[in-house]
Amino acid sequence: MDIQYNEAELAFRDEVRAFVAEKLPKSISDKVKSSEHVSPDDMITWQRALYEKGWLAINWPEEHGGPGWSPIQKHIFEEETAEAGAPRILPFGLNMVAPVIIKFGTQAQKDYYLPRILKSEDWWAQGYSEPGAGSDLASLKCRAERDGDHYIVNGQKTWTTLGQHANMIFVLVRTDTTVKKQEGISFLLVDMENTPGVTVRPLITLDGAHEVNEVFFDNVKVPVENLVGEENKGWTCAKYLLTFERTGIAGVGISKAALAHLTEIARNEKAEGKPLIEHPRVAEKLVELELELMAVEMTNLRVVSAAEAGGVPGAESSFLKIMGTEVRQKISDLYRELAGPYALPFPDEEIIEDAIGPDFSGSAASTYFNLRKLSIFGGSNEIQKNIISKAILGL
Amino acid sequence: MDFSYSDEQRMLKDMVDRVVADQYGFEQREKIIKSDAGYSPDVWAQFAELGLLAVPFSEAAGGFDGGGAELMVVAEGFGRGLVVEPYLSSVVLAGTFLDAALPDDTKAGALEAIIGGEQRYALACYEPDGRYDPHWIETTAKKDGEGYVLDGKKAVVLGGDSADQLLVIARSSGDNPSANGLSAFLVAGDAEGVSREGYTTFDGHRAAEITLANVRVGADALVGSEGGAAAPLQHALDRGVVALCSEATGAMEVACDLTLDYIKERKQFGVPIGSFQALQHRMVDMRISLEKVRSMTLWAACSLEAPEAERRQRLAAAKYMVGKAGRHVAEEAIQLFGGMGMMDESSVSHYAKRIVLIDHYLGDRNYHLDRLIDQLGEESAAA
């Protein structure tokens, strides 16, 4: 038993650090660290730098452009980049649709889409949830009817993250209404830009942000070659996507960076004339968060180490999702508290640019409210508990 | 990085699991607790024979040179069986203190009786007014010719009711709560001037209130250097924390397993109560608490040789988590068992008691949280 990184792992960590130091612009990492808005251009800039290094598609097989890393290397990479304030990698293309295409797609689909994803030429969106299909995803209603060489798609998707920037969307559609709900679903790729009938409408969330959207399909003609896998076998693709490479799901690196930011704020900001960190209740909360985060970090490492030894993380990722999101939400709660009365000004775009009150306070309340989403999306934490009950506890 | 056990660690685990399974049925344990001695000399002799009493000691001391991981393996197994033999007091606390304090050439002689199981030692450190502070020592050691005279009172001395030898921490100089000026003395349990009021603890162990009144000891009773007990004391307490956290991990694991089995079997309204989502989610939360404790314990166990700041932080963090998450598991286990969880005849109630009471040994959750807050303050001052 050895919980320390070995020489090779340390050397790899140093290599990642050196790369990040050289290629991640400070203007971007500063925004990430202080929870400011990161623009699509910022994200693409970072993804292109990673692509040039061959480090973008860390979960892909080597033959398609993955770096061939071990679970521990992937973990180190994710931790180091997150702690350094790198923007998140947009998951919809790289870690969602691509693995499905690699596993179930035709050669033509692989040849066309995978290089475009690697080069960030397409911006993908996820078309899963519907107004009536959230946790019960298989009850989705968006219809696709075969008409010669095309499917005609009608229906609505919702919670489409960053869909306002997307030109491609993968959608789960119902292609057979006469069978069990899981058995009549297909997985389609839709060109949002060049296909008539696709409408994207913004959904403004409680923090005032435009992050998610609803997408309407009105007689949208999709060529049959955009079907991934077999017709009516889309649920297999959907499930595969949801379990793919989830050891990074705990978001430990992001939480570490956020907690380091909080500690810095607590040292610099004052209440009643003395630094926040000297207030016993603030100090206690900071320490408790650090301890909770240590527990998540070590649990994450245990799962990574088991994966390294050949174990396949299954429902363990559900533990990590619950633990990781809970601590991240608690950190955002303290962030809001530390802002004190300056959590109050509503941060429209101008205020974020030129904060009223201390610099950090502009995004405190919005981060807190925005991150309520963590325990809802990606399978709500209650759904994760159902999964653990069934898969691990046998209940 | 590799979290799997080595072959030796796996063998050690199998050995501990086997002896606990053979010797520690629920009724056997009840008998042991109710016996006069409060532990089983037979089981103790078997531990000695298997080499378990030598695990945490250096080779120079005649030990196996086991690190935190080995100690964790042994104590976790003891936790699964709720073993009440005085392993923590005699081997982990008193034993590793001697190992750390004595020069190499005298270690083996001093530890022979502990490793062989012939004698049991107890660390008499904490005092009524110091609570969990190991440096709050009002017991005095005054020079008396070549020797010393010891006076004071020791609180809740684990295994102190019947230990052959007491390792007494006394203040030879300095003021409370200074770590400087603490000295350690070996005093026979039945020495003149030593009075012991022994009792059974809520979790089935034995302890004693010990009064030292004008206890005269020779210069040879001093262990290590005069005034230099703080470092070996920390060495011993660190190992004690690892052992307790590991015991808690083992006990929590069993409490979770027992509860899971119970809610699968127990039927109400015509169905197993484990089919109710409200209980399923509570069961999942128990497992999350167990995983947190397991993770923190592992980290602490592997940090005994880490640089001071990290070692302090991880040990305190683990003990804190045991206090917090342990209580959660214990309370939920009782709740999910319903009325049966309240019964003395249910083994789960004994696991719950041990898990909750572990928080009361070697610093509770609040004590360790305070130390971590102190550490944050030190870091901020340095930043």
From TrEMBL, chain A:
Keywords recorded for this protein, A-Z: FAD, Flavoprotein, Oxidoreductase
UniProt keyword annotation of Flavoprotein present: yes
Domain Acyl-CoA oxidase/dehydrogenase middle: 125-220
Pfam families: Acyl-CoA_dh_1, Acyl-CoA_dh_M, Acyl-CoA_dh_N
Species: Salinisphaera dokdonensis CL-ES53
InterPro entries: Acyl-CoA_Oxase/DH_mid-dom, Acyl-CoA_Oxase/DH_mid-dom_sf, AcylCo_DH-like_C, AcylCo_DH/oxidase_C, AcylCoA_DH/ox_N, AcylCoA_DH/ox_N_sf, AcylCoA_DH/oxidase_NM_dom_sf, Mycobact_Acyl-CoA_DH
Domain Acyl-CoA dehydrogenase/oxidase C-terminal: 232-393
UniProt cofactor(s): FAD
Annotated family: Belongs to the acyl-CoA dehydrogenase family.
The keyword Flavoprotein is assigned to this record: yes
Protein name: Acyl-CoA dehydrogenase, middle domain-containing protein
Tree of life domain: Bacteria
Domain Acyl-CoA dehydrogenase/oxidase N-terminal: 7-120
TrEMBL record, chain B:
InterPro entries: Acyl-CoA_Oxase/DH_mid-dom, Acyl-CoA_Oxase/DH_mid-dom_sf, AcylCo_DH-like_C, AcylCo_DH/oxidase_C, AcylCoA_DH/ox_N, AcylCoA_DH/ox_N_sf, AcylCoA_DH/oxidase_NM_dom_sf
Annotated PANTHER family: ACYL-COA DEHYDROGENASE, ACYL-COA DEHYDROGENASE FADE28
Record-stated family: Belongs to the acyl-CoA dehydrogenase family.
Keyword tags: FAD, Flavoprotein, Oxidoreductase
Species, as recorded: Salinisphaera dokdonensis CL-ES53
Cofactor: FAD
Name assigned to this protein: Acyl-CoA dehydrogenase
Oxidoreductase recorded as keyword: yes
Domain of life: Bacteria
Span of domain Acyl-CoA dehydrogenase/oxidase N-terminal: 6-84
Acyl-CoA dehydrogenase/oxidase C-terminal domain boundaries: 234-375
Keyword Oxidoreductase: yes
Xref: SUPFAM superfamilies: Acyl-CoA dehydrogenase C-terminal domain-like, Acyl-CoA dehydrogenase NM domain-like
Domain Acyl-CoA oxidase/dehydrogenase middle: 123-213
